[in-house]
Amino acid sequence: RRRRGLMAGGGGLAWPRILLFGDSITQGSFENGGWGAAIANRLVRKCDVLNRGLSGYNTKWALTVLPKIITRPTDQGTIAAVVVFFGANDSALKDVNPAQHIPLPEYAENLKHIIQYLKSIGICEEKVIMITPPPLDVSAWEKTCIAKGNKLDRCNSVTKEYTQVCVRVATECGTDVLDLWTLMQSENQNFSTYLLDGLHLSEKGSTFLETHLWPLLEKRTGNLPMIFPHWRDIDHLNSQASLLR
């Protein structure tokens, strides 16, 4: 017997979905060793994991395109969770990188509006997981900037301020939050090994993120059934009855 919630119009199956909504750290999460790919692998045949990472985007641009990514009302019914992962670009220094920079008060409001939009189309705060930006390895990121002919445009102490705002907004709005900035620097860890170029996650950093994110997602997906029976449970003499029951 099919579990309620998997049926869609026309007798098809509406697979549960997790939406990963973020910037380049999300866009690149399906690369080899990426955290998004690891989550998707854990949930094969239970839940689709959709990568909606937008490289270079800040919360202002993300808020503008969100209604194009999750529409009302057709998309929201099968959403098991939405991961919101912005701040690495918002925290760019205004004087050096005004294109991506978003002031702290606006960053807070944009995060609130993202959550409010999701709630307005039926995705409650219990399904939303916020992730703070990771810490910045200033030395490594400066080398990356210089190699591209640019000036250093980010600072870890500024990223900390955006992290604190992200945590505060999540607390106020009732969503879970993964404080990646703090976790990666706890117990005086050498967090530089978690970063590929000072900003984006290395494979080790992706593993670190996935390890901490999975328990939050498991709470939301742990009861999802395997979609379609295991092949050993199919009656080969009457396969249609086994597969369509």
What can you see in these coordinates?
The protein has 245 residues and is of the alpha/beta class. The protein has helices at residues 24-27, 35-42, 59-69, 104-120, 138-147, 156-173, 180-183, 203-221, 239-244; strands at 17-22, 48-53, 79-85, 128-131, 176-178. It has a five-stranded parallel β-sheet, with helices on both faces. Strand 3 (79-85), helix 4 (104-120) and strand 4 (128-131) form a beta-alpha-beta unit. Helix 2 (35-42) runs parallel beside helix 8 and helix 4 (104-120) packs parallel to helix 6. The longest helix is centred in the last third of the chain and has 19 residues, at 203-221. It is globular, with a radius of gyration of 20 Å. The relative contact order is 0.15.
Can I get a quick summary?
40% of the residues lie in helices and 11% in strands. The protein contains 9 helices and 5 strands. α4 (104-120) runs parallel beside α6 (156-173).
Distance between the termini: 5 Å
Q: Which shape, going by the Cα principal axes?
A: globular
- Per DSSP E runs of 2 or more residues, the count of β-strands stands at 5
Give me the secondary-structure category. Answer: alpha/beta
Order of helices and strands: EHHEHEHEHHEHHH
Strand arrangement in the largest pleated sheet = 2-1-3-4-5
- Rg estimate, integer Å: 20 Å
Return residue spans where pLDDT drops below 50 for at least 5 consecutive residues: 1-5
Amount of beta strand: 5-15%
Mean pLDDT: 93
Fraction in helix:
25-40%
Q: Tell me about the biggest sheet?
A: 5 strands, parallel
Give me the number of helical elements: 9
